[in-house]
Amino acid sequence: MTDMIAKDGVEAETVEAVKSLSGEYKYGFSTDIEMEYAPLGLNEDIVRLISEKNEEPEWMLEWRLAAFERWKQMEEPDWAMVDYPKIDFQEIYYYARPASMAEEKPKSLDDVDPKLLETYAKLGIPLKEQALLAGVEAPEGERKVAVDAVFDSVSVGTTFQEELKKAGVIFMSISEALKEHPELVKKYIGTVVPQSDNFYATLNSAVFSDGSFVYIPEGVKCPMELSTYFRINAENTGQFERTLIIAEKGSYVSYLEGCTAPQRDVAQLHAAVVELVIQEDAEIKYSTVQNWYPGDAEGKGGIYNFVTKRADCRGDRAKVMWTQVETGSAVTWKYPSCILRGDDSQGEFYSIAIANNMQQADTGTKMIHLGKNTKSRIVSKGISAGKAQNTYRGLVSMHPKAAHARNYTQCDSLLIGDKCGAHTVPYIEVKNNTARVEHEATTSKVDDDQLFYCRQRGMDEEEAVALVVNGFCKEVLQALPMEFAMEAQALVAISLEGSVG
Amino acid sequence: MLKIKNLQVGLEEENKQILKGVNLEIGEGEVIAIMGPNGSGKSTTSYVLAGKDGYEVTDGSATLNGEELLDMDPEERAAAGLFLAFQYPVEIPGVGNMTFLRTAVNAQRKARGEDELSAGEFLKIVRAKAKSLEIDADMLKRPVNVGFSGGEKKRNEILQMAMLEPKMCVLDETDSGLDVDAMKLVAKGVNALRDGKRSFLVITHYQRLLDHIKPDFVHIMADGRIVKSGGPELALEVENNGYADILAEVA
């Protein structure tokens, strides 16, 4: 068995570099905290170590090991329109956690290292419920958001546990769920995204360290928004989180996910898996604001965001809605998908993908229509600026039994400047003649006349670009929960800074 | 207020001179009209004043209250008090008219070091001003100029002008594409903004707008120069005899 090696958090140099750059990527700071790492690289012992650190049941370890065996025989996919140096999977730390959490997991948020809480406060995450601290209820009408925060490999705390418990909702880190509700995890994990699904999902299956688990019992409308906040802090560390959400018959939940990482000049890997199980008449709304560090203007550093997200509408009339605002990451490879198995089930995908400077995004969705009268809607807004390349890649598949299934796809690309690219790669498979598929695509440029009009009215150039782009994205921004929509709008403006002039 | 001296302007892309030494002075509270045939340089004058790309100023100056406009970015000119009502107002899909107005008003306030207006204050002001221009709540919500009729677009320009309270308003063929009723409404909006201090430069082909917005002086522009100046009666002369006579007379 391998021992954990303690390593100093961050070199002073990095901190200085980050400070000097602040103002561009707002979340680029790193937290100087003592971390514990698993030894560098990946082998069976590392998989065992992660499982042991999480005190997992034996079946989970077996499952991980099976995934690892598979992964060793798999090849990295190269069909996406992204270009990055080959990843050396032996040069990555697969597990890192704040040293303060090594001995015993904190019992409550009060036991959490104040530095961690500071980090989240700086990011604007209300980890400690203000109301709880003050001993008073939140003001009437103010919406509550329960937050699970994941720092590098481990979850540091989930808020509003008690209130959720009353409603019967389970919301905790997946490592806790493996201890407290192993039967639920065992029943559903890997049933939407199989272990062998793809290279990164299989890697994740072997080495995922933490993530969120949500269970909404039959007939329950989750009383608040649930949210997970992911933060990569440690250097040369991969983040592999796994999220599993189960919505039983007739239940409803809205789930938000946010991500940031410090500014570092070496690229970091993030390979997550998200599985959603939606039973009869249930609905899940899943919103993401992804703002991982995108690398600098020359393309140095940044996060490789290789994510597999899939929803399985198992019951009739099940509904899922993916909304994503992808502004960060150096390379994005991500296709949140919907399996529309139940009759009359519905899948929606709303996406804003912004690529500036040297960023590359290859993102889209898959709508797999299996059931009768299934409906799907895709609205994708891709924005390219600088020297970035932005690809929409989407599959709409109408199976033989999906009688009267319908899809509507709208794919709009906006170009800022003349050195970037936008690409649309739709795949459509129709195997029954009652299905209807519509696809609309447009490509436009931010118009000089629009910018001049805005500037004549007093806005500076960046404000003008942000306004025009936010207008372009409006349909998607409207699909986001309100708090997120405001944040996303601001994020659009920030990510396009320096894109004109 | 506005002083244009020997303004000479060419197109950046091609070697073509459009303004060949324009001289013009507009005093505080004055309304000046520029008339002239197509291609005489009227719209170019307005674009160059506002700072549109694509033009090259080869000589001359344009100052607003002593400040050189030609050295400023378009948004600085706006904050200094210059407003251009566009001949062809631009559509901005997805951006609500109200959002656009508020962003513009607050951007200018910020540039001048004033506090931004709160949503509540702003709403109150905009509603009052919209009402007199017969702009309803629906038009305030719709995306900027998208699907607006010609008349709605021009009224919207005047609403922006009313909200931004500029010192110097340039109206570029605001009457084009308007029927008589719409023109009257627009003229009413403009007249409501005449307060003895605010100045107006009204660019038009036709006399009829000047029936409703009474100018103090009228200048005739041809081939990149002001060729004749006079009182309001000059506009009538154009209306009756066309430009040909005047141009022949000058030549």
Tell me about this structure.
The complex is a heterodimer of chains A (501) and B (251). With 501 residues, chain A is of the alpha/beta class. Chain A has 13 helices and 25 strands. In chain A, the strands form three sheets. In chain A, strands 5-4-8-10-13-15-18-21-23-25 form a ten-stranded mixed β-sheet. In chain A, helix 3 (58-72) packs antiparallel against helix 9. Chain A is globular and about 60 Å long. The termini of chain A are far apart. Chain B is α/β, with parallel strands linked by helices and 251 residues long. Chain B has one domain: P-loop containing nucleotide triphosphate hydrolases (Rossmann fold, 3-Layer(aba) Sandwich). In chain B, 40% of the residues lie in helices and 28% in strands. A six-stranded mixed β-sheet of chain B has the order 6-9-10-3-11-12, sandwiched between helices. In chain B, strands 2-1-4-5 form a four-stranded antiparallel β-sheet, covered by helices on one side. In chain B, strands 7-8 form a two-stranded antiparallel sheet. In chain B, a hairpin with a 2-residue loop joins strand 11 and strand 12 (225-230). The A-B interface holds A 447-450, 452-461, 463, 467-468, 470-475 and B 50-53, 73-75, 77-79, 83-84, 86, 89-95, 99-100, 103-105, 107-108, 111, 143, 160, 164.
